[in-house]
Design a protein that fits this description.
This protein has helices at 14-24, 44-54, 90-95, 98-102, 147-163, and strands at 6-11, 33-37, 69-73, 78-83, 107-111, 124-130, 138-145. The chain is an alpha/beta fold. The protein has a single domain, classed as Rossmann fold. Bound molecules: adenosine-5'-diphosphate and magnesium ion.
Length: 166
Amino acid sequence: MPMEPRLVLSTGSAEETQNIGEGLAQMLGSRDVVSLTGDLGAGKTTLVQGLARGLGVTEPVLSPTFTLIREYQGTVLPIYHLDVYRLERLQDVVDLGFDEILDQEAIVLIEWGDAIEALLPQTYLQVELTLPEERPTRRISLSGRGPSWAARWERLEQLATSWQKV
Ligand SMILES: Nc1ncnc2c1ncn2[C@@H]1O[C@H](COP(=O)(O)OP(=O)(O)O)[C@@H](O)[C@H]1O
Ligand SMILES: [Mg+2]
């Protein structure tokens, strides 16, 4: 199996993390899925806010921790934002119509996506956020699952050079 392409970034503020999300949005198209992982407070919702902004969402993006799912309208596509933290069984996501959501012309952003890995499509972008000792820094690791991300990786790396102030 080929190694999955990976890219590691770091940010020093919530705004920088949102800017990465906004830039990353340019890479997303219909039926793309982004799975975000990381501890509470790592910045998953913050990154989603940036992604949503980049996709043209104008209303405020709030954490769907209690509602499990929220839908937004982007400029081109609807965006589903899920947070499966409180989920007790995989079946709860199935009952929510997760398969139908994946079948739509939409972009799907999932916090704690690793909890439902078995239900994710073959192709998705994995975003792992970690809190190193030297907070407020966040480490943001992007990895592409599936061939369509391998094909897009060079462009993603190019874009990323403008997000990262080294
Ligand atoms: N570099 C950073 N990136 C993201 N969030 C940061 C950063 N530095 C500080 N923060 C703060 O950390 C918190 C992250 O919260 P949130 O995005 O809701 O995390 P999660 O959804 O992973 O639980 C926010 O209060 C945000 O302002
Ligand atoms: Mg969150």
